[in-house]
Description:
This protein has 424 residues and is of the alpha/beta class. It has helices spanning 83-86, 137-149, 155-158, 183-190, 196-201, 262-271, 324-333, 336-342, 375-383, 402-416; strands at residues 6-10, 12-15, 55-62, 91-92, 94-95, 104-105, 108-115, 118-123, 160-165, 170-175, 192-193, 216-222, 226-231, 251-258, 276-277, 299-303, 348-351, 392-394, 421-423.
Amino acid sequence: MKRLTALLMALMMVLSLAACGGSGETTKEPETPAPAETQNEEIANVEVEQASAQAEKITVQIAKLDDFGPFIGTFGDGLESNGSIMLEIYQTLASRNNFGEELKNVLMESYVMVDEWTYDVTLYDGIYDSAGNSIKASDVKFSFEKYKEFGESSLATKNVGDVEVISDLVVRIHVVEGSCAGTFERILCDLRIVSEASFNASPDAMATTAVGSGPYKLEKFVSGSQLTLVATDNYWCPEELRDASVEMQNVKVIDCQVLTESAQIAMALQTGKVDISQNVNAQDLPSFKEGGQYAAGHGVYSKPSNAANVLMFNCSADSPLQDEKLREAVMYAIDSDLIAATVNGGNNVVAYCMGGPTYGDYQEKWSEYYPPYDIEAAKAAIAESAYPNGCDLKLVYIAGNTAVEDTGVVLQAMLSEIGINLTL
C-alpha cells in the first residue's frame, strides 16, 4: 500500500506596494478518497487515507512541545504552535477550515441569536471526555473564565463578556459590544472546552496530563521532545456527526516528534522518520512535489494563510516618499506577480487587502484598485517627481525572515530600473 505524507505550509503573501493581506489556492480532499494506489497526491492536513481498516500509526513533526494545557494559546494560533495537534484531544464548540467559511458543529448542536451581542448555544447531549466526565454548559462557562484567568489575550478571549448557564445544555454567551464582525464565530472555533472536574483533578493544569473530549487521548508526554496520542476507546461523538477535518480516528496512534531545523525536517521526511510535517521550508517543497526527487509516496497540501508581508511608504516630511509622483513611480516599478512566482519557492499569491480571500467579505474587484507593473509608466512618473534622476531609499524589515530578505533583493533590482538605489 502506498505510503502518504502531508506537508502543510502557510502560503506567504506577496502584495502590491501599500496593499495588505492575501491568500492562495486551497486543494480540497475528496469526501470519499480513492484507493491508496490511485489517490491524488494532495491530501488534507493530518488526514491520511480513509482506508477500510484503521491504520496503525503515523508520526507527525511538530515545532515545539512545552505546555499542553488547554488555556495556553488558542486553536487560532499559527503553525509554530501545537494548536492543530491539541484539537485531537481538546474540542471547541465549532470549527471551520478557513475564516469566513460555514461553521461545522463540534460540541455545539446549534445556536440562536438573542440580540446583536448575545447568543444562546445548545450543546449535544451525552458529551464526555476520555476520563468519563460529562461536559455541560457549566463547563463551557468554566473554560471561558479559565482563559481569562490564565491571561490569554486573543481576539476571541478578549471579546467574551458574561457567560450564563441557562440549563445543562444551554449556555448564553455575551460578546463585548463593539467587537468586530466575526468575533462570535472566533469564540466558537478558537476556544477549547474541558470538563471542570477533569481540569481540577489534574496536578499541573493539564500541562502534561491533558484530558479532553476529542477523538484521541494523551498516552505519553516528554516536554520538548515527544507526544503520543492514542485513539479514545469511548469517543462520545457518533460517526455520522464527525467532521473529517478534526474528529476522525483514522489511525490508532499519533506519535509527535519535535524537530525544529529545516534540514532535520526535510531529512526526516525523506527517510521516513516522520510521515507528516506542517513546518516544511518553502525551499524544500519542490523535492516533494510532482517531479521532485522525493515525490513518490509524498503529497503536498498547501493551505492559504491570512498572513501578509506588507510594504508601506514612509511619507513623513523628511522622506523622499512624501512626493506623490515618486510613490507612483515606485508602485509601477514593482512587479508583484514576479515576486510571488520567484520568492519563497513561488508559494505565494499577490494580495490586495489585509487577509485576502480567506476572509468572508473579500471582494475580487479590489485587485482592480492597484496599478499593474508598467516600467514605462514608472519612468514617466519619476520624471515628473522631485527626483527625476532617482534617489536613495531604505527598506526596513524584521531580520530573520528569508522570504522577506529575498523580496528585498528583488525590489532592489526592480527599483534600480528607474534610478532608485534601495538599501536593505
